[in-house]
Amino acid sequence: MAVASDSPSVLGVSTSVVVTVLLGVASALAFLWRRIRKDESETEEDEPTGAQEELPADGIFTIESLGRFNGVTGPLCMGVCGKVVNVSSSENITVGQGYGKLWAGRDATYSLATLSLKMEDANTMDFTLDQFTPDQVQALAGWYKHFTHKYPIVGRLTEYENWDFGTIEEEAKSQTPFGLGKDKAADSDAAPAKASPAPEEGVMMRAGDKVLIQGVESRTELNGRIGTLLTFVAEKGRFAVKLEGEEDPILLKPDNLSKAAAS
Ligand SMILES: *[C@@H]1O[C@H](CO)[C@@H](O)[C@H](O)[C@H]1NC(C)=O
Ligand SMILES: *[C@@H]1O[C@H](CO)[C@@H](O)[C@H](O)[C@H]1NC(C)=O
Ligand SMILES: CC(=O)N[C@H]1CO[C@H](CO)[C@@H](O)[C@@H]1O
């Protein structure tokens, strides 16, 4: 009895004071918690979603409207041979990094044919299919196959309306998704689905390829050197490149690499 009646007061402070203080603390915590939650949800809404662009119902894109399907203001789409594909599901093509930085919301046709990772080659349209070498036709056909098989085609680009990609489509039928000539013979009999073990965008340049380094501002001495590609470090959006005579590979942005002519 005595214990029970004593317990409500702590160190002589009355129960009501303790309760009041506790309530005050609790409501302050609840207020802070709501603020934090609010901040979180605000940033979530502001950043990736924002006002999401709807894909055009008629499937007709222009280079300009394609630009809004960049993975930020709309699904991440890109153009290849006049078709627009929704590559949002790709783990290798992400906003602001590597391939995503180059091709999100842009046309990659010329880049894929020439295996170019230069920013300025995306959305390039002042070319003709005739100018491509057989290797470039193969590369483009392989990539066309890759992108149109792996991802949903959501429309077409008006700028390519009068182009005839028939030769590319025809070539694509016998192509591995990578379109790199040297493996063609080995894979050409395989069914398209298994022609390539893992058709991943990151291997547009493959391990072992010789690459030319250019435009690096932080270490200009690297420019003009040829290295060997090791791997694409997707989370950094950079390629690991081994330079001759150097132990440790260096990481370089796709922008700063181009495929060196096969020797
Ligand atoms: C684009 O692709 C993503 C991932 O596959 C999918 O969730 C999304 O619904 C697609 N968007 C449209 C508009 O088709
Ligand atoms: C190489 O990367 C730098 C940034 O480090 C960039 O400013 C430059 O334009 C790139 N060079 C080329 C040739 O794209
Ligand atoms: C080359 C490259 O980075 N490929 C990656 C693409 O994404 C898949 C996961 O879907 C990785 O396994 C690959 O390594």
Automatic annotation (TrEMBL):
- Any one of the GO CC terms: membrane
Kindly list any coiled-coil regions of this protein: none
Keywords, A to Z, come to: Membrane, Transmembrane, Transmembrane helix
| Transmembrane intervals | 12-33
* Chain residue ranges for the region called Disordered: 176-202
Give the signal sequence positions.
none
Q: Low complexity bias located where?
A: 188-199
PANTHER family, per the entry: CALCUTTA CUP-RELATED, MEMBRANE-ASSOCIATED PROGESTERONE RECEPTOR COMPONENT-RELATED
Q: What is this protein called?
A: Cytochrome b5 heme-binding domain-containing protein
Q: What is the source species?
A: Polarella glacialis (Dinoflagellate)
Print the organism lineage.
Eukaryota, Sar, Alveolata, Dinophyceae, Suessiales
